[in-house]
Fold:
Amino acid sequence: MLALALASPRAARADSLTYQGVVYSLGYFQTASQVGTFDYTIQLTVDASGLNTAPSAYLASVAPGITGAVGPDGLSTTPPDLINAPGGTSNWTTTDGGLSANGCTGTGNFFCTSATINGVFNLSTSSSASSPFLFQWVIYDANLPTGVDGVALKSEFVDASGNKVGGLLSQDMTLTEVPEPSTWALMATGLLALLGVAFWRKRTCLPPGSNLI
Structure:
């Protein structure tokens, strides 16, 4: 059981950050394995209920940057698969590269997901149904990085006319590995089993008539 726990998929998270009243929480978990690589689901939640620049703004684009992340064909020039997004994945476009003042036209080790229409599925932040926004992507890598500079995040809000609202978020985040609860349980069970075996062996090795205190 202990070996199984150590070999089980690892979970990790990036600490949340707040910018202009918007709370961004980015994390990942391993979902499957391929030849030489692992599949990881990247999950981003954007809670824009506290946006303090313009209550009628729309989430236009988000761009996570994961060092070493590659697309489904194993190439860094292919964007990851978008598997979940507000209003459905068909309403968003994911491209390779970063986010700039002109939209998903930047450079760097990012994948940028942008809304195809403003004000339809990415509802106004003044609406109670608008937040939190949930995005999920599947990426492929031998081992996701942890620590400082392991991941960065960019984001942009616009008004109904497509004009940028507030500042463009561009900030590093720090990934921290954390075992899943089931992994902790397996490790605890494995350790207890090892202690039980050691106790049993010690008792069986005692001379006849002796007592174990």
In short: Confidence is low (pLDDT under 50) at residues 1-9, 182-187. The first strand starts at residue 11 and ends at 19. Strands lie at 11-19, 22-34, 37-47, 58-66, 81-84, 92-96, 111-115, 133-141, 147-158, 164-178. The CA atoms of residues 51 and 88 lie 23 Å apart.
